Input
Amino acid sequence: MIRKRLVGVVTVKDGWAVQSIGYRRYLPLGRPEILVENLDRWGADEILLQVIDRTRRALGPDMELLERIGGLGLSTPLIYAGGIGSAADAVAAVAAAADRIVVDALIHDNPDEVVKAGELLGNQAMIASLPLSIEHGVAQLLDYRARASEPLKEPLLEMLRSGALSEALVIDWKHEGGPSSFDEALLTALPEGVPVIAFGGLSSPAQMGNILACQHVVAGAVGNFLSYREHAIQHYKTELFGVPMRSPTYQQTHRL
Output
């Protein structure tokens, strides 16, 4: 039975796919639709398209990009993050191209809209984005708009327990972009039973295998390191032999 997933991440800023390092430094990679198309060909189990400058600039979802992605005829499920400020935004993103939605600021600004979006789309379509770090043994949630962290609050934990959000994207934001640096202590920060997608600093198949061995970790997400070599997903999956996930595929890829 296939129970684990490898998620390819494409980070977009100012309209271009970028290599992100700690969400502070950015190096251009090319057109996001080309990276998305390559991940689709390589056999990613899901693709996370995160447009990181939409919410801060109050721009809403990047509908033009989603419409271009929607025209590619992808066979891989698409997760979209960026600028989701209401249930209507979530519905529009799904109507354009996305299969599932990641919410971050909306969880804190208007949790009722998160619940409403889940009612309209199904809770399985809703994912919480949680940029975390461990400070003095305590999990801290980053407010990226204020660049300040605070402990996880009970209303958020209760929302996760309730199932209003189907999975949590646990982001090691301090180590994002660094090789094999994901802090595995973050995997115990959430209530028991919350399915986790681990992201940030995952580069080696060995660490990926350790993380996917955790029962509540349903997926590992990789961004920058899939851009370093062609067929990187195939390499990961070959090295992860024995982990219950889809087999790699090999198809011709496009240049960036």
